[in-house]
Amino acid sequence: MKGTYSGKRREGNGNSNNGINRNPNANTSSGAFYETEETTKNFNDRLNYLLATSISTEATVTVTTGVKYSGILAACNPEGSNGVDVVLKFPKVIDKGFATSNIDQLASDLKENLVIKGEDVAELQLHDVNFSGEGKVGKEAKEESGQKAEVKAEFKPSSKLAGPATERKIKAEFKTDTDISGANTVIKERELEKWVPDDHETFDMNESLEDSTTSWNQFAVNEEKFGVTSTFDEHLYTTRINKDDPNYLHRLKEADRIAKEIESQGASGNVHLAEERGIIVDDSGIDEEDKYSGVDRRGDELLAALKLNAKSNPPKAKKYVPPTLRSQPHNADPAIISSKAAVISPQTVHPKEHKNQELAPEGGHSHSRKKNQLDELKEFSEKFKVPYEMPEEVKAMLKKSSENSPKAPQAALKVNPSLPPKPTSTPPTNPNSSASSKNARATRDLTPSANKAELRKPPARMSQGHTPVHSPSSGRHANISRRRNISQGSFFGSKCPLANKKDFSKNFNMFIKGKEAFEQNRAAGKSKGGAASVFVIEKPYFTAPTWFSNVEQSYRTMFPDEHTAIQRSQMKMQQRSMSAMSSPGSPHMMGVPGMMMGMPMGPSGSPNPYMMAPNASANMYMPFQPPAFYPPVMQMMPMGDERGGSGTPPPQNTGSPLGGPTFMNAGPGGPIPPFNYSAAAPFQPVMGSRSFRQGFQNQSYQNHHNRHRAHDR
Amino acid sequence: MEDDWKSQLNIPKKDTRPQTDDVLNTRGNTFEDFYLKRELLMGIFEAGFEKPSPIQEEAIPIAIAGRDVLARAKNGTGKTAAFVVPTLEKVKPKVNKIQALIMVPTRELALQTSQVVRTLGKHCGISCMVTTGGTNLRDDILRLNEPVHILVGTPGRVLDLASRKVADLSECPLFVMDEADKMLSRDFKAIIEQILTFLPPVHQSLLFSATFPLTVKEFMVKHLHKPYEINLMDELTLKGITQYYAFVEERQKLHCLNTLFSKLQINQAIIFCNSTNRVELLAKKITDLGYSCYYSHARMKQSERNKVFHEFRQGKVRTLVCSDLLTRGIDIQAVNVVINFDFPKTAETYLHRIGRSGRFGHLGLAINLINWNDRFNLYKIEQELGTEIAAIPAQIDKSLYVAEDDSAVPVPFPLASLPNTMANVAGQQQQLPPQLTQPQFTAVPQQYAPQQQQYMPQQQYQYPPQAFMQGPPQSMEQAPSMQGHAPQQTY
């Protein structure tokens, strides 16, 4: 509690309206309740502090005979055997109470100091207590002088003392603009009056500014047209260099050296530093208002750094976009930004990339271009760090999933909603995951949109691959434009077969199948992309970003190597099974102690953490759902039970696969309830059953599929 | 006898334009009440200052007493002088160290602040150096070889110089931040905090701004010692500024602007756009319409920016189109109209933009072109400022923004007082339009060189010896106005 005081002291509040009013009855009852030693000590400390700050202020003491003395508190002894001993200076009698002698008589007995023993003190009133520990200054003093605070303090600590003291209002804090304007929080909309040009007026330049683009020399034009010349001389403003100094040459050299040194250092991500050092940074995400005038209203340091890396709109918009409509970095999702921040040296790659892209005609299969993109992607993936901690299970699952369908995660990155999706041909590696990998690939877009492909912002796995990208805070513009910037080639490894026409058509049929299933969805969604983008567009309001901003971790911790992943997943599997058995019929996700972060099902190696129900029907189309990227969802997924949830925003619960029977029923495998749907059918774990696991996994896709549909409706 | 020095001053012609309570609502103190050194008083009076404005009245004595100050006052009510005066008072010309560091967010503002320091302190024998990015770093390093008492700069460059020990701040007891809310905004704050590590642990801080959209409590707790808070604002907008909006389509904006140009009686105008590209394009259009016009934004070369800034302040061109680079702090007294060609995002930007007109309590006009997409921003900013902006009427009353007599509007560098720069020496003065040659501060050529040796003889020339040599400036008890006023602050 001391901290509170000292903190307030620093704020310079002369506060005085502390009502520490304690009922004398509380005193007698204090013995009734048990207080720990520490509590007692805290209260004692507070009392001591109160008394110490009150010394030299006015105090009124009522003694047991009822006589009230007032005077300046000169000293007191809280350690007294029988209460607090008090010394009053210049005492006066203000109430004679039950005393037999009259006031004058009592007063005549008083000397300069009056010592009142603890046992005689019935009540001690302290006036004008100032906890701030410093003199009042200026206006504050004026404001407060009128208020007389009365503090009645008791002699023995009791639990009441702390409460009011900490609740003191912080007064006279420095006012912000809105404090001054006294603005109410409601934004008032009103009809605006249209400006109408005068009738007789003709104006031939009825065009917006961007309709003409010519660069011009303002000095030349103004001098020619208006005779404006310049008289600027920097010595009007700054000091002169003394060139006559005998050491001038030496100094010049030295200065040159230091200057070079300074200018050669980086700007560590700060636009202002970069500007001052003459480093050209890409600051197209921030305008000059952000830089020189506006005050950043976001509170988080991480975002600030990341904001610099967020670049959402192309630097030169052809048409004027008002600031409100620009995808502002302010609004960008931390995940997107952070993944960008992880890219270390994008600039170095750009020029090359651009050139390559220009050279490569639309649709050209330039190997070198792809190679470039690939290299860059690789570099990126090595440097990329997921900015939050990932539960062990997820790591395991991620690993496992990439094993099963190695291309799926990249596919997720590749979604380009602006172009029709085209599939590639990679034979499924695993019968169980075939559906997923095919569909995943289906959403991939192979059309090299050279114009749009910008590698400046290599996409991040996490941000592109999973739904939290579309957190409520991120505008749609931002997401879409960002997606457009994803390079087509970004997701192909060098060994990944390049799509040729034949493969295209072959697989395209596959996709069409899936497409049919999704036609409805696609029509509903704004995006022109495939399933994933529909999903994406629909998704934003289901998931809030929940990650911890831990950017320190290497991706390696998140994507463990194959071996450990398998080991881990097996362990988890066992764990899960055992726990499940130990409490059959209970809502699993909730009750299982061995599960971390609500991801009990993870270990099966499914690319999808959501798999819920054992179901063997594997042959249906699964809409692509990027594996490996649900951590945030998982963390906030309160086991499909909103009531049991840990206070996370509810919206995504509606999308939780654990949510309800809707999607279950839609599954072709029949109405098999999810295992966690305890009321319907308690899950019977089958230890080590491979078939179970597989079926399980498939079902999970199915659930997903159904889930999307349920949402899109 | 003691008053003789006052009769020797070159006091500029009085600016007779009407002023509002924003600057007139004082307690009636004079500059002499602050017990300033005489050289400083001379500079103050010769700059045309008559009485301290409310913020100056509040802040100067406290700052001279050594307290940390956190002050807010409206745009253009004299904040700069409110920190420059105590700075000049405290700096000792004979100590060859940087004794005050003034930080501002933009380079133009650094130039302007330095110019105010030099104008007010021209008799103090103090050398004030500007250091900002965009200029030759080597030159700045060389400049620091000479005595520098006051360093004005932008944070990035100052940090670079301080961290290389080129600028020695170890004995700099005074740290000043103008536009403190921006300086403590996240992007600058990191730099500022690094700079603070080069200052001595015990130093005085003066923080000034017109806006504080967010609380700066964290910084206060961490870096300020018992800051004396001054808040002279019970409303955000200036009393002298009339605000209107014109609700237009985007492509009507130029048309609307043209109408404004033809209808309004513009002395000087600043037009704000939201992108650098639009700044250039609009400026081009305006010259096409037949109005002289400069533009400025951060993507230009600094030399060009300086030129534009300097010439516009001198009144060489009528209009300036700029980005938010020049939103804060820029003081051009002759500006009576500000046009937001594009509407800003934040309330503080809006407030600072419109505060470019109506300087020092004078009258001004702010016109916002609002398009369909801007309207919510308009509502939001109205809400934050607690005002409602009216639609532009067909005719705007001239008395709202046009002064009857603007012949005495102060110009930063009256031509006659320009130093013996190459331009002047070459006799180019005659080429300038005659209407601009109004001497404002002094008719005597002013030497801006830092060297005191050159400076002293010149002063003696300028002021008769008996006036100049009389006693130490501190012995000012005889100043007549002293008798009437008890010093209001006894710090």
In short:
The complex is a heterodimer of chains A (713) and B (491). Chain A is mostly helical and 713 residues long.
Strand order of the largest sheet of chain B: 3-4-2-5-6-1-7
CATH level-four homologous superfamily name of the largest domain in chain B: P-loop containing nucleotide triphosphate hydrolases
Q: Helical region count of chain A?
A: 29
Low-confidence stretches of chain A: 1-32, 135-171, 310-318, 327-364, 405-488, 526-545, 582-713
- Structural class computed from helices and strand pairing of chain B: alpha/beta
Helical stretch count of chain B?
A: 20
Distance between the termini of chain A: 55 Å
- What is the level 1 CATH name of the largest domain in chain B? Alpha Beta
With strands numbered from the N-terminus, the spatial order across the biggest sheet of chain A is 4-3-2-1-5-6
Q: What Rg of chain B do the Cα atoms give?
A: 22 Å
For the residues shown, what is the average pLDDT of chain B? Answer: 82
Q: Name the largest protein-protein interface in this structure.
A: A-B, 106 and 152 residues
Secondary structure: helix percent of chain B: 25-40%
For the report, how would you describe the main beta sheet of chain A?
6 strands, antiparallel
- What is the assembly state of the chains in this entry? heterodimer
Beta percentage of chain B is 5-15%
* Structural class estimated from helices and strands of chain A: mainly alpha
Annotated CATH topology of the largest domain in chain B: Rossmann fold
Strand content of chain A: 5-15%
C-alpha Rg of chain A (nearest Å): 36 Å
CATH architecture of the largest domain in chain B: 3-Layer(aba) Sandwich
Provide a descriptive summary of the structure in words.
The complex is a heterodimer of chains A (713) and B (491). In chain A, α14 packs antiparallel against α15. Chain A is mainly alpha-helical and 713 residues long. Chain A has helices at residues 2-11, 24-29, 37-54, 103-109, 138-145, 162-166, 177-181, 218-226, 248-264, 271-276, 288-293, 301-309, 334-341, 346-359, 367-383, 392-404, 408-413, 434-442, 461-465, 476-484, 501-524, 531-538, 555-558, 562-582, 588-591, 631-636, 651-655, 661-666, 690-712, and strands spanning 58-63, 68-77, 85-95, 113-116, 121-127, 150-153. The longest helix of chain A is centred in the C-terminal third of the chain and has 24 residues, at 501-524. Chain A has four domains: 2-166, SH3 type barrels (Roll), CATH 2.30.30.100; 248-331, no CATH class; 336-389 and 406-558, no CATH class; 563-712, no CATH class. Chain A has 29 helices and six strands. Chain B folds into two domains: 4-234 and 445-469, 3-Layer(aba) Sandwich (Rossmann fold); 241-400, Rossmann fold (3-Layer(aba) Sandwich). In chain B, the strands form two sheets. Chain B has a seven-stranded parallel beta sheet with strand order 3-4-2-5-6-1-7, with helices on both faces. Chain B has a seven-stranded parallel beta sheet with strand order 10-11-9-12-13-8-14, with helices on both faces. In chain B, β10, α14 and β11 (319-322) form a beta-alpha-beta unit. Chain B has 491 residues and is of the alpha/beta class. Chains A and B meet through α1, α7, α8, α9 and α10 of A and α6, β3, α7, α8 and α10 of B. Chain A: Residues 13-27, 431-440 have a biased composition (Low complexity).
